[in-house]
């Protein structure tokens, strides 16, 4: 399974929506290519925006790390702000500590546009 890390949280809800759409677009592209993919942003965005699940690091990071533990590959979607993202930094640190020998890939959204 591919774990797709990407930035999400931002004070501007419009930017969060754009980040969600980018993660969903990449997730859909990988799935149509036959990949098994988990994107925490695609999974959690609707639950937070439509069903009132709190959109906090403390709520979601345990879910993220549980899925990351099951992943074979880590892909990082390099959207603006990915290097400053608390979640992406924590996911990368976990991966480096526990899965450093497994595949890690950096993705730019343009790479998947074709």
Describe what this molecule looks like in 3D:
It is a single chain. Helix 3 (57-70) runs parallel beside helix 4 (86-98). The chain is globular and about 35 Å long. It is α/β, with parallel strands linked by helices and 114 residues long. It has a single domain (2-112), classed as Hypothetical protein PA1492 (Rossmann fold), CATH 3.40.50.10400. It is built from four helices and four strands; from the N terminus they run βαβααβαβ. The model has no long low-confidence stretch (mean pLDDT 90). The protein has a four-stranded parallel β-sheet with strand order 2-1-3-4, sandwiched between helices.
Topology:
Blueprint: E1 2-5, H1 13-32, E2 37-38, H2 40-51, H3 57-70, E3 73-77, H4 86-98, E4 103-107
Parallel strand pairs: 1-2, 1-3, 3-4
Helix pairs in contact: 3-4
CATH class: Alpha Beta
Helix/strand class: alpha/beta
CATH architecture term: 3-Layer(aba) Sandwich
Provide the residue-averaged pLDDT. Answer: 90
Provide the CATH topology.
Rossmann fold
Largest sheet: 4 strands, parallel
**What's the CATH superfamily, by name?**
Hypothetical protein PA1492
Question: What amount of the residues lies in strands?
Answer: 5-15%
The percent of residues in helical segments reads 40-55%
Q: How many whole angstroms does the radius of gyration measure?
A: 13 Å
Ranges where pLDDT stays below 50 over 5 or more residues in a row are none
Can you tell me the overall shape?
A: globular
How many extended strands?
A: 4
- Count of domains: 1
Q: Span between N and C termini?
A: 22 Å
- Our count of helices gives 4
Task: Identify the strand order in the major beta sheet.
Answer: 2-1-3-4
Order of helices and strands: EHEHHEHE
């Amino acid at each position: 399974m591919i774990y797709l890390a990407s930035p999400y949280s931002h004070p501007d809800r419009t930017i969060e929506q754009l980040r969600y759409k980018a993660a969903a677009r990449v997730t859909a592209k990988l799935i149509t290519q036959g990949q098994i993919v988990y994107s925490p942003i695609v999974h959690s965005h609707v639950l937070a925006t439509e069903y009132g699940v709190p959109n906090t690091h403390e709520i979601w990071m345990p879910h993220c790390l549980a899925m990351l533990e099951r992943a074979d590959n880590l892909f990082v979607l390099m959207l603006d702000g990915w290097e400053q993202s608390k979640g992406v930094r924590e996911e990368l640190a976990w991966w480096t500590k526990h899965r450093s020998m497994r595949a890690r890939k950096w993705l730019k959204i343009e790479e998947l546009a074709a």
